[in-house]
Design goal:
The protein has 181 residues and is α+β, with helices and mostly antiparallel strands. It has 5 helices and 7 strands, in the order H-H-E-E-H-H-E-E-E-H-E-E. A 3-stranded antiparallel sheet has the order 5-4-6, covered by helices on one side. It has a two-stranded antiparallel sheet with strand order 1-2. Strands 3-7 form a two-stranded antiparallel ribbon.
């Protein structure tokens, strides 16, 4: 059903919290926080579902307009949440003893995927982006280059992935993961 789908992978298998964190970090954040709240306040939170009120602000020439939406999530069983927390604490303890840092998740890094777009040489001699060709999938860019819409000189321009939080992380100077290369 659609209600359980946020916890299911494409084969219909329920994802563990660790799998959800890697595959769907935003859903993980909401579902985990709601599940932890239920773990610590079982008398107050008795439902197997939790709701999040989302406020989406859009800037335009008339000022900021907010739209509100709510999303309902299936909560994880308290035993699974407790096991996940215990595993994370054990991982942190191992890193403290080894004087290392744990590897950050894409969400923690503030991951913005690479962007691919087709650029075309204009009459003025500068490259401009072809409308409708921006994508986070390199295959889309290659499909355009193989289509009948391509013109001589068209090229794929890549904007590399960005880990926005790494720039402001207080551990950046000692992070081996971010300082590779």
């Amino acid at each position: 059903s659609r209600l359980a789908s946020e916890r299911d992978d494409m084969r219909g298998r329920v994802l563990t919290l660790a799998e959800l964190e890697l595959s769907y970090p935003l859903h993980f954040e909401y579902m985990f926080e709601l599940s932890v709240a239920r773990l610590f306040a079982p008398d107050l939170i008795t439902s197997t579902r939790g709701r999040v009120l989302l406020s989406i602000t859009d800037s335009n020439s008339y000022g900021k307009l907010a739209e509100y939406s709510d999303k309902s999530y299936t909560l994880y069983p308290t035993e699974e949440v407790q096991q996940y927390i215990d595993n994370k604490l054990s991982e942190v303890d191992t890193h403290i003893k080894a004087n290392t840092l744990p590897e950050c998740t894409p969400m923690q890094k503030g991951y913005i995927p690479p962007e691919y777009k087709i650029q075309r040489l204009s009459k003025s001699g500068t490259f401009t982006t072809v409308r409708g060709t921006k994508s986070h999938n390199i295959k889309d860019a290659h499909k355009f280059l193989l289509s009948d819409k391509v013109k001589p000189g068209d090229r794929i321009h890549t904007i590399s992935l960005i880990n926005t939080n790494c720039k402001v992380c207080e551990y950046n100077s000692i992070c081996e993961e971010n300082n590779k290369g």
